[in-house]
Amino acid sequence: MKGKRIKFLNTYIDNITKVEAVGEVERLINEEGYHYVVTPNADHIVRLETDTEFKAIYDKADLILADGISLIWIGKWLKTPIIEKVSGSDLLPMLCRHAAQKGYSVFFLGAADGVALRAAENLKEKYNNLKVVGTYSPFFGFEKDQEEVDNIVNMITSAKPDILFVGLGAPKQEKFIYSNLDKLKVPVSIGIGASIDFEAGNKKRAPKWISESGFEWLYRFVKEPKRLFKRVFIDDIKIFKVYLKYR
Asked: What DSSP state is assigned to residue 104?
């Protein structure tokens, strides 16, 4: 994959399509060791400037997939166009369909109580033979409780999934994966943000035409203005300062 990896501001991007990303995840499943995937958006790029732990996680990621229309725009401005936006919300169902076809097992970690289980049930209805070996929705602030972290790690290790989907929000999900990678012993772990909520029907994802036109961020803001105002209009806007720094 290194051959398609391009420099992008303060990190790198694996410049591939969604279909190619599924193939890369399968390659990692069958490769020795434990691997993880990150999906940068504007928030991640801005955070990489100040969060040294997050930067180290990105530097060692096995697959870095562009998840954000602002990254697509900036790629064009830099004359290094990104082929396609590969969001966690797109990748989750595609990987579940592929896992069902190939016999790979999956585990869902994240979202509110019971939501991961509901998402798993919905995905099993969509994709016959999808092997879900576990779901768990940890309590808020669990990462500060080592006993609970150990409990989650043991639960996942015992289940032995081929793919671990972690929907805890960034950077919590990436830091959980990275800190416990060797203990989890999962071939591929992926941070997928709110994707578990979408699959559970807990939150409604933007219609496909809105997503493809690049305005999914606006759709989500309209749905959750109080929660997303600071992120969309204050934090994420800082990516243009990062662009000016690295262009």
From this structure: -
